[in-house]
Amino acid sequence: MHETMYAKGKEDLVNIKWNADGYTRQFSFVHQYGEGVLDLIDAPVGSFVVDLGCGNGALTEKLQTRGYEVLGLDASSDMTDLAKKLHPELPFQTADALQFSLDKPADVIFSNAVFHWIDKENQTVLAANLARNLKMGGSLVCEFGGKGCGEKVHQGLARNFEKRGLSYVMPFYFPTIGEYAPILEKSGFRVEYALLFDRPTKQQGEDGLKGWIEMFVKEPFEGIEESVKEEIIRETVEDLREELHQDGSWYVDYVRIRIKAVKK
User: Fold this and answer.
1) CA angle at residue 75 from 20 to 64, to 5 degrees?
2) Which residues of 38-69 are buried (b: 16+ CB within 10 A; e: fewer)?
């Protein structure tokens, strides 16, 4: 979204019910970092660009200011409602990444921090739908979590689940370039640019890591008593303090994969 299941609206697609206002207040870094991905778009002014997983619409607005005809899509109605409120002059629709169908094909589909929420088994469905909604010669420009993203946090949570006889199920898909490029190629894309890179990401406040876990890691805690959940999070935070708390701030060990691919 500006950061697994098939076609249920984003709350289910990404195994999460977004707190849209809280997301906007505390996790603005998601769309701020996404601004760098915009520079991979080389379509001429006036091109039709779809912001897939638009969240609160911050990057949709950036695209519009660059002279593009835009449409923001997100499977969370909470997010599209917020986007419409924040950017009433722009068009937004509630739509699923695996099933959306445009009235006219796009010149560019742009997506930031979305694809890692979709199960590995559904990535081929995603790629095919992206290709279906692009013009021939159109571009996919995207960034999402890559191999190793948040690994220290997820390993810490897994250890504290295991201590209690619980199984921690990774709620994300974090591929390598070598794993993801063939998925796009099978749907008719030519991958022209791909980069996997570390990006330790600063969180807000002394409870930054706790807040990050509570916002983004929800599915593994389903069915677990609230008191046990709080205990696991508290222990994980303390376990990771020495490694991820630096100069008074929490950092999550993000790894990103950035791709530009052209429909051929």
Assistant:
1) 80
2) bebbebeeebbbbbbbbbbbbbbbbbbeeebb
Residue 33: the pLDDT is 59
- In the chain, DSSP assigns E strands to 48-52, 69-74, 92-94, 106-112, 134-145, 189-198, 201-202, 245-246, 249-252, 255-263
Divide the 264 residues of the chain into consecutive groups of 10 and give the mean pLDDT of each group. Answer: 34 43 45 75 98 95 97 95 97 97 98 95 98 98 98 98 97 97 98 96 94 94 97 98 96 97 97
Global pTM value: 0.87
Residue 37: strand, helix, or coil: helix
Distance CA 209, CA 203 (A): 7
**Residue tagged 């994300």 (tokens):** 172
Sign of CA dihedral 196, 27, 39, 59: positive
Q: Is 251 helix (H, G, I), strand (E, B) or coil?
A: strand
Residues making up the chain, counted from first to last: 264
Which residues are CB-neighbours of 230 under 8 A, at least 6 positions away? none
As a whole number of angstroms, the distance between CA 97 and CA 118 comes to 9
Orientation of helix 177-186 relative to helix 123-132, angle to 10°: 50
